[in-house]
Structure to design on (342 residues):
């Protein structure tokens, strides 16, 4: 039985045969990863894998490049300035529709973990998505998953996305500032920004994908989100590097699954926890089911994403998508097999 007080010792005591047990070492030892808003809790597994030394254990030196939204992180990957990206699973489908093979290798987020929070003065009259008409909504980046969430809600309510104005506000701090200075009527953002806004009485959450239940209510099922993905050519040329990266991420997910909120907060950068540790802990406790326990993709859940995107993204309307080709469980299955709990 693994006691919680021993969790911080997991890099040593836990478990994992090194990646070398699966073959020789990585083809390349240094990789660059882009991430669209690293301080969002959804992306915490990436930072935890790094801070617990799991990438180093796997023989990798990982450089993380934080960008103001998932679409920007994807652009960097496509341009060849990154080897892997931590972003939305959506991108693997969208890029296939554009003739580019981007493949998910680790699923760390089982739902989008964003929510629509409407400024309190506007929330008084808000009754449902049809009230989004004429509103100015802040999203992490134009063309990001946060925008698609609103477009989906709008279409389901009979609105055209053109009846809503979208403003790029970046990550959590940008969303908080946009609400507080009145630049937007609402924002779609993640934790811990949402708990900061709602606890202070600045905004009210009206549509929520931070939990399995909330995600299913909106989309009709779990919606895969946080994904490590790469170009197919990179995976084909560097399978041992990809395996090393996947193994580090699966170890981080295993650690998170057995950790307390206090353990998680203790590992993450101190600036993430400020200015209010209690609010940060509340953010973690309220969204624990967002993290995948094993990093595996589900075809049924991928179909939920495809259904939503087929509605909100004109490029997918009528497109023929080979959904199983958007992800692989090969690397996470090998990583899970390598894990042994003593």
């Amino acid at each position: 039985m693994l006691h919680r007080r021993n969790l911080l010792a997991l890099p040593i005591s836990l478990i994992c045969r090194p990646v070398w047990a699966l073959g020789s070492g990585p083809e390349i030892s240094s990789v660059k990863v882009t991430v669209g808003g690293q301080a969002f809790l959804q992306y915490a597994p990436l930072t935890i894998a790094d801070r617990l030394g799991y990438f180093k254990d796997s023989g990798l030196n990982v450089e993380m490049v934080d960008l103001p939204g998932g679409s920007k992180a994807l652009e960097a990957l496509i341009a060849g300035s990154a080897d892997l990206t931590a972003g939305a699973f959506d991108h693997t489908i969208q890029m296939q529709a554009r003739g580019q093979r981007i493949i998910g290798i680790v699923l760390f987020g089982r739902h989008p973990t964003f929510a629509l929070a409407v400024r309190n003065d506007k929330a008084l009259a808000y009754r449902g998505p049809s009230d989004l008409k004429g509103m100015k909504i802040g999203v992490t980046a134009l063309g990001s998953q946060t925008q698609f969430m609103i477009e989906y809600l709008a279409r389901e309510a009979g609105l055209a996305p053109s009846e809503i104005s979208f403003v790029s506000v970046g990550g959590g701090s940008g969303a908080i500032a946009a609400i507080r200075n009145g630049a937007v009527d609402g924002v779609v953002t993640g934790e811990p920004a949402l708990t900061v806004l709602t606890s202070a009485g600045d905004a009210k959450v009206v549509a929520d994908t931070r939990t399995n239940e909330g995600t299913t209510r909106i989309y009709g099922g779990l919606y895969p989100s946080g994904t490590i993905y790469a170009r197919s050519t990179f995976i084909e040329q560097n399978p041992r590097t990809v395996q090393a990266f996947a193994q580090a991420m699966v170890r981080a997910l295993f650690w998170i699954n057995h950790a307390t909120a206090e353990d998680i907060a203790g590992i993450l950068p101190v600036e993430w926890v400020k200015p209010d540790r209690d609010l940060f802990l509340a953010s973690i406790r309220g969204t624990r089911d967002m993290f995948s326990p094993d990093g595996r993709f589900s075809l049924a859940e991928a179909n939920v994403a495809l259904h939503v995107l087929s509605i909100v993204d004109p490029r997918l309307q009528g497109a023929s998508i080979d959904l199983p080709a958007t992800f692989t469980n090969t690397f996470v299955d090998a990583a899970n097999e390598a894990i042994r709990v003593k």
Q: What stands out?
A: Confidence is low (pLDDT under 50) at residues 1-22. Residues 4-111+223-338 form a domain with the D-Maltodextrin-Binding Protein; domain 2 fold (CATH 3.40.190.10). Strands lie at 30-36, 61-67, 84-88, 102-107, 115-119, 136-139, 165-168, 186-189, 203-208, 226-231. The chain has two domains: 4-111+223-338, 115-208.
